[in-house]
């Protein structure tokens, strides 16, 4: 198949004009989001160019421990982002989130590279880093939704939680309905998205592979396996996070520490 058509610098510059369409309507309806939108686009552009340069170096080096170190840095960054967006205490919960993401990545990433793709070297930079990034990005969004739902519902329904404790429920039994709700809310969108994938939407990884010259058959197989791996990794990460966080957030009597 043909190689992907390169985007010229002129085409790249013209592409930025598309942002004027949403910016105009955001300004027209006085949303106050124009500056935030333009800042986000500028940050995204700079960050992605820097990451592209750095990934080029990583791909040329292809040293297994450097690749692992980069993924660990990504995990720490994602952990800080999760706690920042959920407004949960960093000092108390950062170790729990980091360990949850590390364990999930170690299980699912290693299995995907070794058993599904069957790479001779599972830490091959060209596969290991992009796939890890996709898994981690979805784990981040799922964790934000789950932790937000879990802690906000406990604060909102504090009396119900204390009622269950007063009637003899253990801490785990009293927290079970809140964990259930957190899982449902964080994974309903993913389940709905998978149900219409290919009919309503073409996923980015599959489109990228086809544009890059892969056959549709290869791109489809990769996309199906990636979606399953993303779903499994996100669910495992959320379960680990909720389990570790509830142990840190509640004392032996079921009282919330913060």
Description:
This protein has 258 residues and is mainly α. The chain has two domains: 1-61, no CATH class; 63-249, no CATH class. The protein has helices at residues 9-16, 20-28, 34-61, 64-86, 90-116, 125-156, 158-166, 171-196, 204-211, 216-249. Helix 4 (64-86) crosses helix 5 (90-116), helix 6 packs across helix 8 and helix 7 packs across helix 8 (171-196). The N and C termini lie far apart (58 Å).
Question: What's the arrangement of secondary structure elements?
Answer:
Layout: H1 9-16, H2 20-28, H3 34-61, H4 64-86, H5 90-116, H6 125-156, H7 158-166, H8 171-196, H9 204-211, H10 216-249
Helix pairs in contact: 4-5, 4-6, 5-6, 5-10, 6-8, 6-10, 7-8, 8-10, 9-10
Q: What amount of the residues lies in strands?
A: under 5%
Count of beta strands: 0
Helix segment tally: 10
- Approximate helicity band: over 70%
> What coarse outline follows from CA principal-axis ratios?
globular
User: What pattern of helices and strands is seen along the backbone?
Assistant: HHHHHHHHHH
Radius of gyration computed on alpha carbons: 21 Å
What is the structure about, briefly put?
This protein has 258 residues and is mainly α. It has ten helices and no strands. It is globular.
Keywords:
258 residues, mainly alpha, 2 domains, 10 helices, 79% helix, globular
């Amino acid at each position: 198949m043909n190689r992907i058509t390169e985007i010229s610098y002129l085409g790249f510059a013209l592409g930025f004009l598309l942002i004027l369409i949403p910016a105009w309507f955001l300004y027209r309806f006085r949303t106050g989001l124009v500056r935030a939108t333009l800042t986000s686009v500028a940050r995204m552009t700079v960050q992605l160019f820097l990451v592209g340069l750095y990934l080029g170096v990583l791909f040329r080096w292809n040293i297994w421990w450097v690749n692992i170190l980069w993924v660990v840095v990504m995990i720490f960054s994602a952990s800080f982002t999760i706690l920042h967006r959920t407004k949960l205490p960093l000092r108390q919960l950062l170790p729990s989130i980091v360990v949850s993401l590390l364990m999930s990545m170690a299980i699912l990433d290693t299995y995907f590279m070794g058993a599904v793709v069957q790479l001779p070297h599972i830490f091959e930079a060209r596969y290991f880093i992009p796939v890890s990034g996709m898994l981690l990005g979805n784990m981040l969004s799922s964790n934000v939704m789950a932790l937000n739902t879990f802690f906000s519902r406990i604060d909102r329904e504090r009396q119900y939680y204390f009622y269950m404790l007063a009637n003899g429920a253990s801490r785990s039994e009293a927290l079970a309905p809140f964990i259930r709700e957190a899982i449902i809310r964080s994974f309903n969108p993913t389940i709905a998205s998978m149900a219409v994938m290919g009919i309503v939407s073409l996923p980015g990884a599959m489109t990228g592979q086809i544009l890059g010259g892969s056959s549709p058959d290869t791109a489809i197989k990769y996309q199906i396996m990636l979606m399953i791996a993303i779903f499994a990794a996100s669910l495992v990460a959320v379960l680990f996070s909720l389990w570790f966080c509830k142990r840190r957030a509640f004392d032996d009597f079921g009282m919330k520490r913060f």
